[in-house]
């Protein structure tokens, strides 16, 4: 199969630092254009919207949507209508209804739609999953904490309600946990902290239920100081598993099994190429459903103002 011509839609921090380098290294893709209303590279055709790309730009086979969450549904629908395969950054949509509609649209047109949960491609995922496959899980602790000022500098959209607030980050932890743990889980309760000057939560504590597990909790924080703290701790009848540093490092009973820098997005694009090649889609919306559960069951508290 010849290289798939792809356009990146939205050229912010993650597109620049993760998507473009992964595409440039991939044998299966050729970056043909950028669609953005902001700063853009000088070495590629640039368009302000998809209509301009499809009307006047180079022919593309697929698009990678790296725009703010609220814009993804409409752009994905437009790209599918134009006959393009679509990769969705996380979260893939604002609601489950949106992602289901896109899934149906892609299926009707025979196109590939990929909800790219990049944390599921972390180096330690497969080994951690194998270690837990036949274990009795006693307790789980999911921690996902970072400083939003570092990851989304000067980005006002991240504080709009459609962005999901701290869950824009925490959903990565949920996607990782759902890929590693051997049974499905559901949010039973949540406590969300809303700064008095923001319309989204910047911290969350979740109570989670999973069959056979005595205690399962999660803590997300966007106002974390220092190095990121992103870890899944699982106590089993065989001992303790720790998958930390966003899935880069794995230890079991204190013995280090894996410590490898991430190349998540390289694996994301390999998966996307495989889906297009086979005519399939991968649209697991489980983490988004868990976020919806958290909002539906939330106890909300107002906290001091948050300034970026």
TrEMBL record:
SUPFAM superfamilies from the UniProt entry: NAD(P)-binding Rossmann-fold domains (SSF51735)
Segments passing through the bilayer: none
Molecular function per GO: nucleotide binding
Superkingdom of source: Bacteria
InterPro entries: Gfo/Idh/MocA-like_OxRdtase_N, Gfo/Idh/MocA_oxidoreduct, NAD(P)-bd_dom_sf
Span of domain Gfo/Idh/MocA-like oxidoreductase N-terminal: 4-113
Protein name in the entry: Gfo/Idh/MocA family oxidoreductase
Originating organism: Martelella lutilitoris
